[in-house]
Amino acid sequence: MASAIEIDRLAFAWQGDQLTLDIPQWTVEAGETVLLRGPSGSGKSTLLSLLAGINVAQQGTVQLLDQSLSDLSGRKRDKFRADHIGYIFQQFNLLPYLSALDNVLLATQFSPKRRQRVAASGHSAEHLAVEYLQRLGLTSTQLHQTAVHLSVGQQQRVAAARALLGAPELLIADEPTSALDSDRRDDFIKLLLELSEQNNTTVLFVTHDASLGQYFNRHVELSDINRASGGLAHA
Ligand SMILES: Nc1ncnc2c1ncn2[C@@H]1O[C@H](COP(=O)(O)OP(=O)(O)OP(=O)(O)O)[C@@H](O)[C@H]1O
Ligand SMILES: [Mg+2]
Questions:
Q1: How far is CA 199 from CA 112, 166, 191, 193, 202, in A?
Q2: Mean pLDDT per 10-residue run, the chain (235 residues)?
Q3: Which amino acid residue places its CA nearest to atom 1 of ligand 1?
Q4: From atom 3 of ligand 1, which residue's Cα is the shortest distance away?
Q5: Does a structural domain hold residue 231?
Q6: CATH number for the domain including 79?
Q7: Rounded distance, CA 5 to CA 20, Å?
Q8: Which of 96, 113, 159, 167 could cross-link with 199 by S-S, CB 3.0 to 4.6 Å?
Q9: What is the pLDDT of residues 26-39, one digit of tens each?
């Protein structure tokens, strides 16, 4: 595989003609771990949503794992995301009335590919989900609590476990440690790095936490790749 992420002449505006993103070219190689930084409101989450095919750029192309996202219908993009991308949303996106464990298992329920990868590990999805949640510090009681009854930091750890289950090729994490204390943050980084090394996962990780910098191959400032700044298009 040539590259995990390949952006070419991408332009995206939420509304009107003010560009949030104007990225001539950007590549992330398979297996790279990239830390993405930028001020609040600069377009980091917007970029991640385009990479995951949740939103579609008005111009240009986004290729993920050699697949051009704009060539896929909305439904196929959803399937592609379920199969290939572990996404930790800034707002977690858990189903509030499912338990922590069932939220994690959603990752494999929507993706035969992720079920196959779990099966190849020789463990059940439930076994791995419990292992990840326990390594992230959830107790056996908390595993069975509905997400709505978990603390924000616990919900964030459930979202992290869900993104990791089934060894997706690409992990996209939008400030995934923002609600964690330093011990929980270290547990998460350890699990993330261990699994991504094992599976040659490409990692794109947004964080403001400078202490995490050491863990990544490459640091990127959004302003270094994005010609639109503060929502204003360049002349
Ligand atoms: N759903 C949306 N509809 C309209 N505008 C949006 C939407 N989401 C984001 N924006 C706008 O796009 C710009 C970039 O927002 P984005 O959420 O991508 O920034 P960010 O870099 O992730 O910020 P933060 O560090 O605060 O999470 C902002 O000006 C924001 O108002
Ligand atoms: Mg954001």
A1: 17, 10, 12, 10, 9
A2: 90 90 97 95 96 94 94 94 95 96 97 96 97 96 97 96 96 94 92 91 93 93 89 42
A3: 14
A4: 14
A5: no
A6: 3.40.50.300
A7: 19
A8: 167
A9: 999 999 999 999 99
Tally of domains in the chain = 1
For residue 20, tell me if it sits in a domain.
Answer: no
Residue 16 within a domain: no
Domain span at 119: 28-56+72-225
Q: Kindly give the number of the ligand 1 atom that is closest to the alpha carbon of 230.
A: 29
- Which amino acid, one-letter code, is at 232? L
Ligand 1 contacts (CB < 6 A) are 14, 20, 38, 40-46, 90, 231
Q: What are the tens digits of pLDDT across the range 99-133?
A: 999 999 999 999 999 999 999 999 999 999 999 99
Contact predicate 191/129, CB 8 Å: no
Ligand 1 centroid–CA 35 distance in Å is: 18
Q: What is the C-alpha to C-alpha distance for residues 161 and 156, in angstroms, rounded to an integer? A: 9
Query: Which atom of ligand 1 lies at the shortest distance from residue 222's CA?
Result: 21
- What six digits make up the tokens of 63? 């290729």
CA of 46 to the centre of ligand 1 (A): 6
Atom of ligand 1 nearest to the CA of 38: 21
Ligand nearest to the CA of 232: 1
